[in-house]
C-alpha cells in the first residue's frame, strides 16, 4: 500500500524497540557496524525497507486496484484488490517480514477500499495516503521546534550516538537538517499527490506511493552517514 510504503524506511529501524526484528538480523536499536559510505548505507536502508522486491510486494494491492479499474471499472478493481491484498500479505510473511507490517498493509488496503466504495471513485482509494504526508510533515517540523528532531529519535541509537545527543551541537545539527529535509520531502510528496488526486490520476498516485520508499531510504542513508561522521569528529 502507498502509505504503508511511506513508512517503510523507518518501520524496520524502529521495530526492534518492540521486539519485532527479523530472524537473523541485528536488533535495530543496536549500533550498525556496516561501512559508512553513502552507497553502503543506502543499500542497508533499502534492505531494511524490504528491498525493491519488498516495496513492490507492499504496493501490489494498490497496483492491482488501479490496473483493474483501468480495464474493467471500479467493481473489478475491488475484486482485484480482494485477491491481491491477501496475496501481498502472504508474500510478506513468506519473505519473513514483520507480522505487524504485513497486518498494517492489509488493514490499510481495507480502509482505503472502504473510502473508495463510499465515494464511488477509484481515486478515493488514495485519499488517506494523500493526506499522510501532511501529517508527517507537521510531526517532523514540530520535532525540530522542540529540539527533538525525528531522525535523531530514530537513528541515534542505531549509529551508536551518545544518549545526550541533543547536547552535542554537531550531532544535533545533523539530525535537525535531515529532519527538515524530511519536512521538504513530505511537502513535495503532498503537492504531487494533491495534484494527481485533483486530476483524477490513480495510476500516478500509485506510482508516487512506490517512489516514496526509495526516496526516504536515501534520506535515511544520508542521515546515518552524516551522523556517524559527526560522532567520529566529536572531541
UniProtKB/TrEMBL annotation:
Residues 1-36 are annotated as: Disordered. The keyword Transmembrane helix applies. The chain crosses the membrane at residues 50-68, 74-94, 101-118, 124-146, 174-192, 204-227. Keywords: Membrane, Transmembrane, Transmembrane helix. Pfam families: DUF3159 (PF11361). InterPro entries: UCP010219. This is DUF3159 domain-containing protein.
